[in-house]
UniProtKB/TrEMBL annotation:
This is Periplasmic binding protein. Residues 63-351 form the Fe/B12 periplasmic-binding domain. It comes from the Archaea. It comes from Methanospirillum hungatei JF-1 (strain ATCC 27890 / DSM 864 / NBRC 100397 / JF-1). InterPro entries: ABC_Transporter_SBP (IPR050902), ABC_transptr_periplasmic_BD (IPR002491). It holds the Pfam family Peripla_BP_2.
Length: 380
């Protein structure tokens, strides 16, 4: 054992208090650093919603409710479905949302923006998530003011095919940015692959597309006009023009037949939905094996209508069938891919819409649903 002499001991005695002070300072810095990291994970979060409103939460939301089916799918993509305590009544797809029966509804069927405020208050959510309805800021403000100040409301546009900012913002609000950002990259890469080939097309090579919209009676024809800007964007990205893009309308508009007869129509997209044809359309089709046969029937019926029979679309075999779900929710960017493939087949010979659609379902929705066993989405 080494024995310290008095001189050495005196030196150690003088240096020991300095070491203690340094150690205390070091530990203090570490504790502050740790506290800052934790506050970043659980502290307040702020975004600017798609109405331009600043939305501030004291902490990432843990209890959420939503109105509109598009918002429900957006929550899935952002990785926040386990936080849902109340839902839109029109969500019916059990293959996407396995626990629907256990979640109370906050509105009526097909009434996304007519909310049950008493039920919402009872559920005590940290956040109410609503689809931005383009022409109805006034109604949104009424909802937000009714629930203020206890329950914050955010308006996000989940229908925009060109941007997935709504999912990114939702990831911030829910504390699930890692999941949300991965989806945003997938979305943006897909749109970029289309834009790179269509952005330089001259107007003469952009076909005029008419969308025969769902939701009206068999004798009525409706479409998407100026207010339904998501359809205008779908056409623009795909390298086309929406014939009705300048028609004033509140989302879906019944078409004046004389106006329609005067239009140059190069392609027709006929929307179908599972509410009218549950056997043949969508993820929950009950007779998917007959979906192709039904799509052929739909094309034939459209082609034989007097209002359409004279068009270049019919004459040149440019009539297509599309599930409305590929336009009216976050996967509208997949609708872009189908349309681009139809109207510019040579330009997009190397792109497979079904493959992109399948990856979306498996990787980001989290379902093992096989599109080969589903109904109509895009035909042919």
């Amino acid at each position: 054992m080494k024995i310290l002499d008095k001189k050495t001991c005196s030196h150690v005695t003088r240096i020991r208090p300095s070491l203690c002070i340094l150690l205390i300072l070091f530990l203090t810095v570490c504790m502050v650093s740790s506290a800052d990291t934790n506050s970043g994970d659980t502290g307040s979060v702020t975004i600017t919603d798609d109405w331009g409103r600043e939305v501030i939460l004291d902490h990432p939301a843990e209890r959420i409710v939503f109105g509109h089916t598009a918002a429900g799918e957006g929550i899935l993509l952002a990785g926040g479905w386990d936080k849902v305590v109340g839902r839109d009544a029109s969500i019916t797809n059990y293959k996407f949302y396995p626990n629907l029966d256990s979640l109370p509804v906050i509105n009526g069927l097909n009434q996304a923006f007519t909310l049950d405020f008493e039920k919402i208050t009872e559920l005590e959510p940290d956040l109410v998530i609503l689809q931005k309805k383009y022409s109805d800021r006034e109604n949104f403000d009424v909802i937000a003011e009714t629930l203020a100040p206890d329950i914050p409301v955010v308006g996000l546009d989940f229908l925009d095919p060109e941007s997935a900012d709504s999912i990114q913002k939702l990831g911030v609000l829910l504390g699930t940015s890692d999941v949300a950002d991965e989806y945003v990259r997938f979305h943006d890469d897909t749109i970029t692959s289309i834009r790179e080939k269509t952005s330089s097309l001259p107007d003469t090579e952009k076909p005029h597309v008419f969308i025969d919209a769902v939701g009206m009676g068999p004798e009525q024809i409706s479409t998407y006009g100026k207010e339904a800007s998501f359809w205008n964007k779908i056409c623009d990205i795909a390298g086309a023009k929406n014939v009705a893009q300048d028609l004033p309308s509140d989302f879906v508009k019944t078409v004046d037949l004389e106006w329609l007869l005067e239009q140059d129509i190069d392609s027709i997209v006929v929307q179908v939905w599972d509410k009218e044809k549950p056997e043949y359309v969508g993820y929950t089709a009950t007779q998917p094996a007959k979906a192709t046969e039904e799509a052929e029937v739909i094309i034939q019926e459209i082609s034989e209508k007097d209002i359409y029979s004279h068009t270049d679309a019919v004459q040149n075999g440019q009539v297509f069938v599309q599930d409305y779900q590929l336009a009216n929710n976050p996967k509208s960017f997949i609708g872009v891919v189908y349309l681009a493939k139809w109207i510019h087949p040579d330009l997009f010979a190397d792109i497979n819409p079904e493959q992109i659609h399948q990856e979306y379902l498996k990787k980001f929705i989290g379902t093992d649903l096989d599109l080969n066993n589903a109904g109509i989405f895009g035909y042919p």
